[in-house]
Amino acid sequence: SLVVLFGATAGAYGAKLGSDERELILLVWQVVDLHSKKVGTLHKSLVKADNLDLSDQCREVSGLTPEGLGKAEPLDRVLQQFSQLVSGDLKVLGRSSYTLCSDGQLLIRQVLHPETSKKNFLLSDCFYSFYDLRKEFHTCYPSSAAVKDQTIKTMAEYLGLGTDETEEDFGVWQVKTMVAIIFSMLSESCSHIFTEPETVKYKYETGPCLLWLLFFFFLCSSKSETVDSETVIRARGLPWQSSDQDIARFFKGLNIAKGGVALCLNAQGRRNGEALVRFVNSEQRDLALERHKHHMGSRYIEVYKATGEEFLKIAGGTSNEVAQFLSKENQVIIRMRGLPFTATQEDVLGFLGPECPVTGGKEGLLFVKYPDGRPTGDAFVLFSCEEYAQNALKKHKEILGKRYIELFRSTAAEVQQVVLNRYMSTPLIPTLPTPIIPVIPPPYTIATGSIRDCVRLRGLPYTAGIDDILEFMGDATADIKPHGVHMVLNQQGRPSGDAFIQMKSADKAFMVAQKCHKKMMKDRYVEVFQCSGEEMNFVLMGGTLNRSGLSPPPCKLPCLSPPAYAAFQTAAVIPAEAALYQPQALLPTTRTPQASAAAPPTVTYYPAQAAQLYMNYTAYYPSPPVSPTTVGYIAAPPGAVAAAATATHTPILPQPGALVRMQGLPYNTGMKEILSFFQGYQYAPDDYNGLIQLSDQARSVLQAPKEWVCL
């Protein structure tokens, strides 16, 4: 038996059904006995949505009103009634089992499954298998229109059936016509058999995606892709704590390939709010693209096309050690961060305790290390069931030794990516353009004092630029210090959604935070927090800042992060194709000429792709995000470039011989190699205290005993 099902939402209709996240408001169904060609009672049920604001198209097509829907039952009650009524009709027809049949994929995959997932109740098993009438019709009548172009009306017209929709109520005509189409397909001239239903996966299958062999083939061959690019999407704007299961829930109703969720990480091993998702076929991928700007909690998620090459670079790399670790399937993976470098397997097992036993004991632990064998403080742990994993997550921020440990859900793809990124001497995916042209450092630097004369903007749209921020702040732009806007970029050189702004005084910063907090920029609200320059640097090192206060970075030990990161203002660099440029003033005209004249002469630059400059970085953990501080918002006076290049500067080093120059370095040399080269040498930190602005925390780090040189 088939249960012919039709539905409508409060929003878009037809090919865009479910693309706008609107709730279901109508279900119509009828049981069809394929053997006796008898039908049961036709049922029509209105559904009360949480939001009864109907779109114009919905009102016009369906004729429904908010008043009528307000008297209906909610979706969970309607689905219960559906099961009961279908069971009764089957008994009357002498049948016991059935399969749903709908007009296309959208009602089941894009409406029912996502909505019930968001409302936290389960669909019955019948909604995980269904026949797509359009596909069945095209199989029966190959000369008909393509599946994507089919509608109930075109199929009826092809068969010469009546198509006057005004004769019946909305939904009733559609179901009756679908039943007539099915009977035509069952006629002696066609004798169509329904044999291969569409299926919806009950849950996302975790575990290794087993693409690492393809990845190495990809590295060693000239073939550019080994995964079908028509099956991969990129999701952007994810909450940082999102797991692969959260992403699978966002795409509920669509079939994701096993191990097909790859969380993207930055150079510090932290999730950057993006993920690559691989679906079982291109049809599922196309449906996923229709969920662009759907919501995960209070955040909207952007969904774009991606390539198989990108997916392999994130999810495909692994090593024998990782392959062995991930060989145990159906395991829950937890990531531990901030472990003491001296921590052993016994220490970790003791920390977790008997209430959350690790699968295989020591074999269920994987420590992440740098290429030279030093521990990074990260580890992955396997648990055999969700209960043990939940017990482990309850130990989040508990103490091991003298450090608190962070625990997060993780994925097989994240294990592969983290381990491979740490193991390789160069990043897996080179993202930032090679910086080769030195730029004269600006006279403005981020202050490190305790005066709260700065504000932090969090949650900016990824497309937001300097102009958008200035417009967002309105009249307060007149109170921004010269060179006081600092856009924070992620490791891919893209905006991270954060920005820091230095105001002229703490009072001005307070007023901006009060006036602009949760104000809308484009289609997102932006959080604005008052902070100090010291707190700003603290956040750039990996800490967090919100209205509840300041949380320290998960790791601050000197041997992990050289002290220069906290305080030294690294000289900026621009790509070779960038040109020196004297732009017009980017700040509003509310700045007085006197204020501009009082500022020291500056040199401004215009990068080729955006008005942002990339900073040198080193992939130690934690290192600050890429944050340009040298964008000129005040036009450089004529001749400033030449003057700055030829000016004689006072030597800043207090004594001769304190600075050495190295020539002949390999092009791939990093900070680690240079520090290793000078290992054993000391420097006198007191001689350097006058070179830069230092917070008390940074100064204490500088003055600690070191076994490496600071240049």
Task: Compose a concise summary of this entry.
This protein is of the alpha+beta class. The protein is about 30% helix and about 20% strand. Strand 14 and strand 15 form a beta hairpin.
Structural notes for this entry:
- With 711 residues, the chain is an alpha+beta fold.
- It is 28% helix and 21% strand.
- The protein has 23 helices and 29 strands.
- Strands 1, 2, 3, 4, 5, 6 and 7 form a 7-stranded mixed β-sheet that branches. Strands 9-10-8-12-11 form a 5-stranded antiparallel β-sheet, sandwiched between helices. It has a 5-stranded antiparallel β-sheet with strand order 14-15-13-17-16, with helices on both faces.
- Helix 4 links the parallel strand 5 and strand 6.
- Helix 6 (152-159) crosses helix 7 (172-185) and helix 8 crosses helix 11.
- The radius of gyration is 31 Å and the shape is globular.
- The termini are far apart.
- 38% of the residues are buried.
- The model is unreliable at 210-225, 425-445, 553-656, 683-695 and 697-711 (pLDDT under 50).
What's the average pLDDT? 75
Q: What composes the largest sheet?
A: 7 strands, mixed
* Unreliably modeled segments: 210-225, 425-445, 553-656, 683-695, 697-711
| Secondary structure: helix percent | 25-40%
Cα radius of gyration in angstroms: 31 Å
What structural class is derived from the secondary structure elements? Answer: alpha+beta
**Dominant shape:** globular
Number of strands: 29
The number of helical runs is: 23
